[in-house]
């Protein structure tokens, strides 16, 4: 699975999960993109762009095998870049996000 495509599929799920912590940034981005000033408009824009680019809505469209969300979640918690997420995620948070993203 290509890294960029994986990120494109996951992005809406991650933005939605982080929205409470980044609402000011999302509102600023909405204004910059001339989408109004509602943070939710950015997520709507991301979803529309995803559709325009024919990016799958869920990981099951990309993965031939099942995804071991428990293992992936444990690895994500250990990843040094996890500390940069606006909301600290637990392994359970990652697992929940992945299960939603798998579809």
Report on the architecture of this protein.
This protein has 103 residues and is mainly α. The chain has one domain: Dehydroquinate synthase-like - alpha domain (Dehydroquinate synthase-like, alpha domain). It contains four helices and no strands. The chain has helices at residues 3-32, 39-52, 69-78, 91-102. Helix 1 (3-32) crosses helix 2, helix 1 (3-32) packs across helix 4 and helix 3 packs across helix 4 (91-102). The model has no long low-confidence stretch (mean pLDDT 94).
Q: What is the CATH topology? A: Dehydroquinate synthase-like, alpha domain
Indicate the proportion of strand residues: under 5%
Radius of gyration: 14 Å
How many independent structural domains?
1
Summarize the model shown:
By secondary structure, the chain is mainly α. Helices cover 64% and strands 0% of the residues.
Defining key terms:
103 residues; mainly alpha; Dehydroquinate synthase-like, alpha domain
Break the fold down into its secondary structure elements and pairings.
Blueprint: H1 3-32, H2 39-52, H3 69-78, H4 91-102
């Amino acid at each position: 699975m290509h890294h960029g495509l994986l990120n494109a599929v996951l992005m809406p799920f991650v933005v939605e999960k982080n929205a409470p912590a980044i609402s000011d940034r999302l509102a600023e981005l909405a204004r910059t993109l001339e989408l109004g000033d509602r943070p939710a408009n950015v997520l709507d824009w991301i979803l529309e762009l995803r559709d325009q680019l024919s990016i799958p809505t869920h990981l099951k469209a990309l993965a031939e095998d099942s995804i071991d969300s428990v293992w992936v979640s444990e690895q994500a918690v250990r990843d040094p870049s996890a500390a940069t997420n606006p909301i600290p995620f637990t392994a359970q948070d990652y697992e929940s996000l992945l299960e939603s993203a798998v579809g």
